[in-house]
Amino acid sequence: MRPLILTLKKDPDRRIDLSGLVPENLQGRSEKAIARLPLDLSQDPLEVGDIFRLRMGDPMSLRFEGASERFDFVGAGMASGEIILDGPVGAQAGRLMRGGRLHIRGDVGPCAASRLAGGFLEIDGDAGDNLGGPLPGEMAGMSGGVVIVRGDVGPRAGHRLRRGLLVVEGKSGKEAGSRMIAGTLVLRGRLTGAPGPLMRRGTIVLIDGDCLAPPMFADCGSHRLVAASLLASELERLGLGFARKLRRPLRRLAGDMSVSGKGEIWLA
Amino acid sequence: MRDMSVKGIMVENSFAEAFDMRATALIITADSAEWARQAATAMTGFATSVIGCGVEGGIDRELAGTETPDGRPGVRVLLFAVSTSELQKQVLTRVGQCVLTSVGSACYGAIESEEKLKLGAALRYFGDGWQISKKFGGRHYWRIPVMDGEFVCEAVIGMTKAAVGGGNLIIMGAHPRNVLKAAEAAARRIDAAHDVIMPFPGGIVRSGSKVGSKYKTLVASTNDAYCPTLKGAAKSKLGAEIGCVLEIVIDGLSAEAVGGAMRAGLAAIIRLGPEKGALRVSAGNYGGKLGRHHFHLRELLP
């Protein structure tokens, strides 16, 4: 069945909230009902029909043709189905996502994948600060699922990561994997500063990566780890060819010793 | 229906009576096929009969690196028990003592099922706080630091209640040497089948048992009707021409797997012929009232 297509008619004149435009929320709604969904909480809210031209199809497969950096909460809370979006988007894309597949063919703003709990988020461009992290007042970041960023990411990618797999193919900003609780953060490109400050548990994988040796990590030596092969298989399944480097011996750093010291950095 | 003669071998009009069992399958990997086999052999040792061992187990087949989760050579092992609690106990004891301890080993579940048994979820405590949980591709693993690196095992593994235990072939002939040849030929063919094991040494058992005993403390005792040295003395089922009897016992993950293995074994015995191998083939049962799976030999003929 063909997808439901939303084509951008004009850039919105304000920031808009796209969390209502997720597959499970559109099922059973008519074209007219979808066009009347509000996109912000102002007294005179913009509606879907003001911004998008609709071509009806299966709402479990949503396509956005055109996007704007004023699009916030793209795919937020989605639990099933698929959203593909062309162009850049704003803050908190994929926040609280529980399932399904969200593919953004462009850059995303800060706090993308914030507290994502399941599903698959793919970002073809760059991502802003605090990728996968919690918002102020929240205790933990991403708690499941898979996130792949093809471009660069800002500071604190994987902040308070609790579970799940987060892959960055480009460069990472400072303090990647800060205060990690568990989970796996794979960083392929160059890093700014030392990764994993105050991480308690979890794994940061640096592909080709040497890093500024974090001061509170212990060098456990070089090892060929079965767990690295299992991660390699999963990354290969996701189409990430660089994963083969995990099948070789890698250097393991344990830390951050200033907290529990049960976390680790793999230098592959 | 009467017994049938197939290419000179008498196939009795009998059936194997088999029972529902609980079973699980594990993949054991190591840096080499030899060390994967070492761990699997140790784990499935002393696992011939639920009567005395708590579990029946064996190696299903060897796996290439392309067939295992971590890309290393491995072995698929099957374990069968009469209850979930006994199977759970035996899996933990055997993996904990025989696989965790084996050089370079790792252990994973090898059947998908809603029913689960704990594996790493219980063994992880050996890590004394240094164990690490990892979830990749929807599967949950535990990494336990050991002296040669890490022991990796899956947190939980699948268990099936559709398993069948007690498929069997009773192979009879004049000379022990020929009967053994026929039994070995059958065991080789069955060994190549998937999802089945033969829990006895080399896949062959020479001490078939009957239910009960004249001694009150024993639940099973020698099958005197098939002991050639008791012909004439006990109520024997053996004719004058029979001088030796061997049995093959088969457990499988499904009734189809057990039936298929019996068919393959029977074909191998018949192919060997009466001159080099067996003169007569039968199957053991308890009158058909105890086990709900009946494998009739006449339906399994090649």
Describe the protein's architecture and organization:
In chain A, the strands form two sheets. Chain A has a 13-stranded mixed β-sheet with strand order 3-1-4-6-7-8-9-10-11-12-15-14-13. By secondary structure, chain A is mainly beta. Chain A is built from four helices and 15 strands. Chain A has one domain (60-267): 3 Solenoid (Pectate Lyase C-like). Helix content of chain A is 9%, strand content 28%. In chain B, the strands form two sheets. Chain B has a 15-stranded mixed β-sheet that branches. A two-stranded antiparallel ribbon of chain B has the order 13-14. The longest helix of chain B is centred in the last third of the chain and has 22 residues, at 255-276. Chain B has 302 residues and is α+β, with helices and mostly antiparallel strands. In chain B, α1 packs across α3 and α5 packs antiparallel against α6. Chain B has two domains: 4-18 and 162-299, Alpha-Beta Plaits (2-Layer Sandwich), CATH 3.30.70; 22-160, 2-Layer Sandwich (Alpha-Beta Plaits), CATH 3.30.70. Chain B has helices spanning 33-43, 50-53, 84-99, 120-123, 176-192, 255-276, and strands at residues 4-6, 9-11, 15-29, 56-63, 74-81, 106-109, 116-118, 132-136, 139-146, 149-154, 156-173, 196-197, 209-211, 220-222, 244-252, 280-282, 293-296. At the A-B interface, β10 and α4 of A face β8 and β10 of B.
Explain the layout of strands and helices.
The complex is a heterodimer of chains A (268) and B (302).
Chain A: E1 3-8, E2 16-17, H1 23-26, H2 31-35, H3 48-51, E3 52-55, E4 58-65, E5 71-72, E6 82-86, E7 101-105, E8 120-123, E9 143-149, E10 163-168, E11 184-187, E12 203-206, E13 218-223, H4 226-237, E14 250-255, E15 263-267
Parallel strand pairs in A: 1-4, 2-5, 4-6, 6-7, 7-8, 8-9, 9-10, 10-11, 11-12, 12-15
Antiparallel strand pairs in A: 1-3, 13-14, 14-15
Chain B: E1 4-6, E2 9-11, E3 15-29, H1 33-43, H2 50-53, E4 56-63, E5 74-81, H3 84-99, E6 106-109, E7 116-118, H4 120-123, E8 132-136, E9 139-146, E10 149-154, E11 156-173, H5 176-192, E12 196-197, E13 209-211, E14 220-222, E15 244-252, H6 255-276, E16 280-282, E17 293-296
Parallel strand pairs in B: 2-16, 6-10
Antiparallel strand pairs in B: 1-2, 3-5, 3-6, 3-11, 3-17, 4-5, 7-11, 8-9, 9-10, 11-15, 11-16, 12-15, 13-14
Helix pairs in contact in B: 1-3, 5-6
